[in-house]
Amino acid sequence: MSKIFNNIEIPIDQDLEEKLQWLMPEHGPYRILRQSVDARRAHSPHFVYSVEVANKGESLSLPQFDLEKISAPKEKPLIVGTGPAGLFAALRFVERGVPCVLFERGSDSGERMKGINQFWRYGKLDPRNNVCFGEGGAGLYSDGKLITRIKSPHIPYVMNRLVKFGAPEEIQWLSNPHVGSDRIRRVIPKLREFLKANGCEIHFNTQVTEILTEGKQVVGLKTEHGTEFKSPYVILATGHSAEDMINHLRDIGVHLDGKSFAMGLRIEHSQAAINKIQYRQFSEHPKLGAANYKLADHDDETGIGVYSFCMCPGGYVLSAGTEADGLVCNGMSNYNRNSPYANAAIVVSIHHNKLFGNDVFGGMKLRRDLETRAFQAVQDAKGTKELPAQNLMDFLQGTNSKKGPRPLQAGSSPSGALNIRLDELLPKHMTTRIREGLNNFNRSMKGFISEDSQVYGIESRTSCPVRVTRDNASLESISHAGLYPAGEGAGYAGGITSAACDGIKIAETIIAKLTSTSVALQK
Predict the structure, then answer these.
(1) What is the pTM (predicted TM-score) of this model?
(2) CA distance linking residue 423 with residue 207, whole number of Å
(3) Whole-number average pLDDT of the chain
(4) Shortest CA distance to 312 belongs to which of 119, 182, 160, 158?
(5) Which of 65, 116, 245, 431 is the most exposed place for a label (fewest CB within 10 A)?
């Protein structure tokens, strides 16, 4: 019989094995259930573990996630989008014996990377292959974060399958797991090949232009090539940036709701500065690695929050737009997090009802407006591919002195940066609230405000401002049966793990329907 030890505290200069030998001298194999770093100022940094330990001579049973197969249906489920929601829906289908068809407007990840690199180097945007579109979705160019606030029984399965296709085993126990953008780009092709070998038909460079309906029943879809695919099961997992699909859904009468979201800027510090703030005199200890942070400031009077989002230790600030006349910034880290810079989005909550009322597309319009203004500001400054950026002190003070703006740091963006008045580009209410939040963050992380730091714009793709509303039980659109909105683009997820779990949940819902239909026919 194994034993579980929770909250084992290990100094950074001690090994877990030593502690286990003291707790259970005659022990067998063990596995880590959870690992985190406690770096609070009350004590020196240390690791905190939860561990399952077997007795000597015994072994540990590991979860296998063996899935029962069902009879293949006559009509294959159709999945639009190859982000985490789409890929994991397809994975669940094929592992349960259900062939499916997957559509992606962009290319496979190898070709996609070529288009992105051309954009960063020369400013030539490929509308199909960019940081938001193409195989792997927006998560392919991120930190590969797997942190989620949801409580889903599918999370261990997601981690297990990611490891199966090449992700580091530690993601199954770290408190802040991440794959890294470089490693997730190795995972996705292996997942793709598994899907193709097990009954999933994949169409790259194939944009879905029309959802086919008969009355209020979805019956299939049509691609840009004019080909129609018929099925009563269409999973829509197009991500947070597929505005053209949202417009199409509106045009055919699918029920949509405006959704609150967040926008702002991305802040960049030196990683050494963040390590010093978080780890103090232990900042260069090799076991601690690149420090991260999570900050929030809530205004009780207005209800408007400012918070950090998608913090990328040892990372890069990316140009991540999807339109030729718009600029968007985002963050990315590789697995080793070895860039000399740290970045994070600093965003302010945008309450849909307060700002836009009954205008379902109010948030989408604001997002588009700010992205085009950012692009135009760079063009006016004689730029080409650069991101707009501003020294942090200039942003806070609104500096426009005779000496001119403070110079920018070299920074991490592969597209470069131009000095732009972001404090004037953002709406006044957003600038004011972000300034308040930053000043409050500096109280909890002294040194967070520094003349050596800078902000980039515009961080506008934290989530989709529109929800494709679905029924809580059937997971179908509340207006159109057979349409299954999934993941971030539909407004039901907020990251790689939650989107993957959402895709699995929908796949299992369809499988349950297929199973019940099969049983009914047999009777």
Answers:
(1) 0.93
(2) 38
(3) 93
(4) 182
(5) 65
Question: With contact defined as beta carbons under 8 Å apart, do 406 and 391 qualify?
Answer: yes
* Range 371-391 average pLDDT: 96
Residues, the chain, total? 523
428 class by beta-carbon count within 10 Å (0-12 exposed, 13-18 middle, 19+ buried): exposed
CA distance 27 to 25: 6
**H-state helical runs in 357-447:** 362-380, 392-397, 422-425, 428-444
| SS3 (DSSP) at 457 | strand
CB 27 within 8 A of CB 56: yes
pLDDT at 223: 98
CA–CA separation, 345 vs 363, rounded Å? 18
Question: CA-CA distance, 117 to 114, in Å (whole number)?
Answer: 5
The residue type at 349: S
Q: Which of 346, 367, 351, 347 is nearest to 260 (CA)?
A: 351
Alpha carbon distances (Å) from 93 to 310, 314, 499: 30, 37, 16
Report DSSP state, residue 72: P
Question: Can you name the residues that pair with 80 across neighbouring β-strands?
Answer: 103, 236
Closest CA to 135 of 210, 199, 186: 186
Tokens 């974060």 locate to 145
According to the model, what pLDDT value does residue 521 have? 47
Q: Which two tokens stand for residue 243?
A: 């505005």
3-class state of residue 327 by DSSP: coil
Do you find a cis peptide bond into 458, omega within 30 degrees of 0?
yes
Q: Would you state the pLDDT for residue 63?
A: 79
Residue located via tokens 């609070």 = 40
Do strands 315-319 and 261-270 pair parallel, antiparallel, or not at all (unpaired)? unpaired
Position 358, amino acid: N
- 3-class DSSP state for residue 192? helix
User: What per-residue confidence (pLDDT) applies to 519?
Assistant: 47
d(CA 96, CA 68): 6
Name, in order, each residue with C-beta under 8 angstroms of 363's C-beta and a sequence gap of 6 or more.
Answer: 258, 259, 260, 261, 350, 352, 355, 356, 465, 466
> What are 382's two structure tokens?
């004689």
Place of tokens 């290990």: 10
**Contact between residue 448 and residue 257 where contact means Cβ atoms under 8 Å apart:** no
Of 129, 113, 112, 108, the closest CA to residue 203 belongs to: 108
Element (H, E) at 16: helix 16-23
Task: Check if the beta carbon of residue 86 is closer than 8 Å to that of residue 487.
Answer: yes
CB-count exposure of residue 380 (10 Å: 0-12, 13-18, 19+): exposed
Side-chain half-sphere CA neighbours of 400 within 13 A: 6
β-strand 341-350 against 261-270: which pairing, if any? antiparallel
Which tens digit of pLDDT belongs to each residue from 217-263? 999 999 999 999 999 999 999 999 999 999 999 999 999 999 999 99
Phi, psi dihedral angles at 92 (to 5 degrees): -65, -40
Per residue, what are the HEC states of 8-52?
EEEECCCCHHHHHHHHCCCEEEEEEEEEEEECCCCCCCEEEEEEE
* C-alpha closest to that of 513 among 96, 79, 151: 96
Give the per-residue pLDDT at 150: 82
C-alpha–C-alpha distance, residues 305 and 347, integer Å: 8
